[in-house]
Amino acid sequence: MQINVNGDKLTVDAPEDMPLLWVLRDFLHLTGAKYGCGIGACGACTVLLDGEPVRSCITVLGDVEDKEILTIEGLSNDNSHPVQQAWQKLQVPQCGYCQSGQILSAVALLNETGNPDDEEINAAMSDVLCRCGTYPRVRKAIKLAAKTLHKGEAT
Questions:
Q1: pLDDT at residue 153 above 90?
Q2: DSSP code, position 72
Q3: Which of 121, 151, 153, 155 is nearest to 139 (CA)?
């Protein structure tokens, strides 16, 4: 089956019912998406599918054909995306396990809502669990990235 990952058309020889997470990690060696719960509840495995955050542990290969998959590895090749820069500047991660899911969810939020308020950020980010509790820094980093992306329009 051919899939589009990070802008590249790739052929994978895997069953259509295989979770996308395992295709990414085991076949394509893209290990940014993490296995957390396996039931789509924690968000550690989040990738963007046609710009929308999805849980790759419960999204099967057969459902992604002809769609654009973006993993944390494809966001930028040098960590220069404004969300990644904000994450680094504000030292958001502690253990780091959830960060690829957090960052990609933040990217989707900022693509949809250029200048989100606290309520919008909380709603968009509440389903990506962080055991370390870095939610206040996540919120600040999203606001900082919004300022960079939207040239000072963020509050």
A1: no
A2: H
A3: 121
